[in-house]
């Protein structure tokens, strides 16, 4: 692999799915995608309860509809963002302009930091609302595993989004790839 702009090979090469799948940030992006599905899926499927005495559903997180709405919204938007940046990862080798590559990499870094922050807020918010939930609101413990799963995967998502930063080869790695020594 010859050195190129912003950690990618030279533009215009053929699409290689094997190389794409082996890149660490692509793997982490897929993991982030799965985690977002777990979070919004858990809340949508088992995050709302109702009692026979009440006709209306309520959120399992302290009867706070904003907590469920935040978890679902962040999960769905993170899902869509992962798809968008996976598409960018596929298209990235075809970008020939160094300026456009730089914009793509910088937007990836900024968006990853933003989503790590949103997941941190979501983890804190869901964990707090779960902590102050009253046992009398859910005497049969329905949906508790799903609520805990949403909290746990919100926490795990913080690290997957922080880790999806695009990797750039170091000088030593480039020297090994090209067969040339390090600059003096």
TrEMBL record:
Residues 20-173 form the MARVEL domain. PROSITE patterns: MARVEL. InterPro entries: Marvel (IPR008253), Synaptogyrin (IPR016579). One of its GO terms (cellular component) is synaptic vesicle membrane. It comes from the Eukaryota. The keyword GTP-binding does not apply. It is found in: Membrane. Keywords: Membrane, Transmembrane, Transmembrane helix. Signal peptide: none annotated. The chain crosses the membrane at residues 30-49, 69-92, 104-126. Pfam families: MARVEL (PF01284). It is a multi-pass membrane protein. Belongs to the synaptogyrin family. This is Synaptogyrin 1. It comes from Rousettus aegyptiacus (Egyptian fruit bat).
């Amino acid at each position: 692999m010859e050195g190129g702009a912003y950690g990618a090979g030279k533009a215009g090469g053929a699409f290689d799915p094997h190389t794409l799948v082996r890149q660490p940030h692509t793997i982490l992006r897929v993991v982030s995608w799965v985690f977002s599905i777990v979070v919004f899926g858990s809340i949508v499927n088992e995050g709302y309860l109702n009692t026979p005495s009440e006709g209306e559903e309520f959120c399992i997180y302290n009867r706070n509809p904003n907590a469920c709405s935040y978890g679902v919204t962040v999960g769905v938007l993170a899902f869509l963002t992962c798809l968008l940046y996976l598409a960018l990862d596929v298209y990235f080798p075809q970008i020939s302009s160094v300026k456009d590559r730089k914009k793509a990499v910088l937007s990836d870094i900024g968006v990853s930091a933003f989503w790590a922050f949103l997941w941190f807020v979501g983890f804190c918010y869901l964990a707090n609302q779960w902590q102050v939930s009253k046992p009398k609101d859910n005497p049969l413990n329905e949906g508790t595993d799903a609520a805990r799963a949403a909290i746990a995967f919100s926490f795990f998502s913080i690290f997957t989004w922080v880790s999806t930063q695009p990797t750039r080869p170091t000088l030593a790695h480039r020297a090994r790839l090209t067969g040339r020594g390090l600059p003096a």
